């Protein structure tokens, strides 16, 4: 009976250690973050776990150097770089507790036990799409011909 009790106590101790290790990993994963800045330094993004955007900073120069669509693209690329940095931290945290043969990136993606053929999307059939049409007033058309910054300055002077 004492051997049985000792085994149960040992199993409970192992369970408690495993649970504490899991809690520790969960705390580390909850604290994961990634930061990136655009090459010109005008955009800085900070993301949290899972690539969730936490902070976005745009310098005054961002509005002068980039047209709106260029700035939007730069923001998307910078946030993606910050998310990749956070993902790398996530993978490192997980690799410390996973078996050596387990790919943490595949585990996070949900593909750890699948072959690429099982999760890659099937080739989509080509569908001819018409480009989206946007109605443009004469006033809007004229504004589009001007630099977006120049038109903003003009509007400020008129007010």
TrEMBL record:
Parts forming coiled coils: 1-35
Compositional bias of kind Low complexity: 115-126
Chain spans, region Disordered: 111-159
Repeat is among the record's keywords: no
Superkingdom to which the source organism belongs: Bacteria
UniProtKB keywords: Coiled coil
Basic and acidic residues composition-biased segments: 144-159
InterPro entries, per database record: YbaB-like_sf, YbaB/EbfC
Pfam families: YbaB_DNA_bd
Full protein name: Uncharacterized protein
Taxon lineage: Bacteria, Bacillati, Actinomycetota, Actinomycetes, Pseudonocardiales
């Amino acid at each position: 009976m004492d051997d049985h009790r000792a085994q149960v106590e040992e199993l409970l101790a192992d369970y408690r250690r495993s649970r504490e290790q899991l809690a520790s990993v969960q705390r580390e994963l909850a604290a994961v973050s990634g930061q990136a800045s655009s090459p010109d330094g005008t955009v800085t993004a900070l993301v949290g776990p899972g690539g969730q955007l936490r902070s976005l900073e745009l310098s005054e120069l961002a509005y002068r150097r980039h047209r709106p669509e260029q700035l939007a693209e730069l923001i998307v690329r910078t946030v993606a770089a910050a998310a990749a940095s956070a993902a790398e931290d996530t993978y490192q945290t997980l690799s410390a507790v996973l078996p050596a043969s387990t790919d943490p990136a595949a585990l996070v993606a949900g593909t750890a036990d699948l072959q690429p053929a099982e999760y890659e999307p099937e080739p989509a059939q080509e569908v001819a799409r018409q480009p989206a049409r946007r109605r443009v007033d004469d006033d809007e058309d004229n504004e589009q011909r001007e630099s977006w910054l120049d038109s903003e300055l003009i509007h400020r002077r008129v007010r």
